[in-house]
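Changelog-adjacent note: as of this version, every example in the card shows the full chain rather than a window. The one below runs 413 residues end to end.
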Amino acid sequence: MKQHTEEELQKLAKKKLNLEKLKDEQVVLHPEISKWRDKEKPDIQMLRSLNTRGQIQAVTFRELKDRPQLLAGARRYAHMKLLGWTWDEIKKDVREKMSDRDALILAIEENLRRKNLTVMEEARAVISLLKNKMSIKNIAKLMGQSPSWVSSRKNLFALSEETRSLFEKHGLAYGYSVPLRKLGSLPEAQATLIEKIVEGRKGEYYGIKTIEKAEEFVTQILKQIKDKEDLLLKYGACPACASKDISKYGDEHLNCENCNHSWHGITKEPWEYYEVKQNLERMGIEVEEGPEKLKLTPKDVADMIKKKERQEQEEKEAAEEELPKNFRSKATLTMLLKPMLEGDNIQKLTVRDEKIEIQLIEGMDLYFDGLRKDYADGVSKARIMTAGWGGTDSVKKNHAHVDKMLQAAQADA
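Full-length structure tokens:
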């Protein structure tokens, strides 16, 4: 057999380990055992060992209609074929007159002895034995585990094939399969949960780091689904576009997240029309609907709504003019920072001499840059500059924060 250089081995390690294509023509793959392992990449260490030390343990086959069927050592066999070994160069242990059940048991024992099965591979092995009419009790005895352990591996197949694939790809612990199963036929939610678990393992702040947190995530998702189903049961879909993506704001005020239509849950009237009607009735103007009783025409109502929108826009523009984005502050930067740090609210602290960066656990929805200034008036201590887009809400919140800190300082004084 050919001896490969390190460079050649490195190239081989980048190839796909497809046993169906690598195997000798006469070899038959077992329909169950061949499914246990996920398709994996070549192991450079195994390639090096076979290349330098040769084959130590024989690959196990059984005679099946005058053809050898691979039972144990499939991974080693695939690496030997990747190295270009011929059928005659491979050490083989060929068993005769072996039943299907005994073939499965032999493969299980071989893999258990090597202790190299993943959680999902264990599950596939359990399913294979159950298909062969072996009881959970006998499987537990064979695998040296409890019946509940066998049932837990069997339950992994309650997950969809796509979810099982993601579960195995990221090497998740069995415990995470329990909250995943609770999401039932919600593959997108299951994929999101797995993504968050992976983020948690990387140490990302918003990732899920424990099974308990995964359970909390599932509880929240299922509550949201129930709340939405209850909402649809009571009010139905959006009357404008028939979307089921609806939300409730306050008393009977519904909004469609798809087309942004708002309406009254009971009367089904557009919310703007309902509000105008209520305001008019409070003013003593009766609004009756009917062919002859309509005191206000639809055009009248539409004009009133437009007028209201213009007034709101004018008020918004006036508010933007009244509150400048950038302004002087009588509060010091220390005063503005103090409430953000209370209650052990620091997630991360980076100190570089005179430069300090702080990441908070809970943000305060504030966006500004503060600069210490020694103004001539002797009162103003800093300049506050609204950061980002500087929308009206940000400006308002920045002003409110500064005012609140000044009031607190005055109260303490």
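Structural remarks: The two ends are 90 Å apart (CA to CA).
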